[in-house]
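@channel sequence for tomorrow's demo:
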Amino acid sequence: MIVEQRTYTTHPGKWRDYLALYEAEGLEIQKRILGRMVGYYRSETGTLSQIVHMWAYEDMNERTHRRHALMADPGFKAYAAKMLPLLQNQESRILVPADFFAPQWQQ
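structure tokens (generated this afternoon):
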């Protein structure tokens, strides 16, 4: 099992616009196609205007398959065209659980 952590930094003051647009247009599509949402957060301290979301996959092959399906979805393409101008930076990392940790979705 892997978790992809995606951190988006919006232009200053645009995090509210990002979250409103995501809830209205992106959330249902991503949940349907990507499947296992681990969490969706915004920063309150530290680097501001950041949105952090995490998605779980069995392995990199599943991630690749699901991400390709997401990028091919017409609804997601329309959403992304509105969302991307709100972003200043994007970062993605793959997290692997420690041997002693049993993720909730596997219990």
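heads up for whoever presents: The domain at 2-57+74-95 is CATH 3.30.70.100 (Alpha-Beta Plaits).
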